[in-house]
Write a structure and sequence with these properties.
Elements lengths: L13 E5 L2 E4 L2 E4 L2 E4 L2 E4 L7 H4 L7 E5 L9 H9 L3 E5 L1 H13 L4 E5 L4
Parallel strand pairs: 6-7, 6-8
Antiparallel strand pairs: 1-2, 2-3, 4-5, 4-8
């Protein structure tokens, strides 16, 4: 078996996560975050839709990591994101991190909005 190191180029992968934090491209951010191929920023969660809506036209799919367990998005938030033309995929945050990194390595136009795990 031959293993290869993944080359993300200039993109910003999610290196790791833990209770209350995410490590993205070597930088530790606490709390919820929004991650794109160009960087990451702190996010205020479901009550802060503007950073997510700003992704419209820039990404094809937004992965929303709902923390330790999968949960439904507030209906008004999901409607606003879909009305803006964003494809939305809901999963727990660990799955969202893994999926984001795989598709990022393929050069896909994606972003992730992640709530921290406990």
């Amino acid at each position: 078996m031959h293993l290869s190191e993944i080359d993300y180029g200039q993109a910003q992968p999610i290196d790791s996560y833990g209770p209350g934090f995410f490590r993205i491209a070597g930088q530790v951010l606490t709390g919820a975050v929004v991650v794109t191929r160009t960087g990451a920023r702190v996010w205020q969660g479901y009550d802060d839709p503007l950073p997510l809506l700003a992704l419209a036209g820039q990404v094809d799919v937004l992965f929303v990591g709902t923390g330790t367990r999968i949960a439904h998005l507030p209906g008004d938030l999901r409607t606003a994101l879909e009305d803006a033309g964003l494809g939305v995929e809901i999963m727990d945050s660990p799955a969202a991190c893994r999926t984001y990194n795989v598709l990022l390595s393929e050069g896909r136009r994606i972003a992730a909005a992640l709530l921290p795990v406990d």
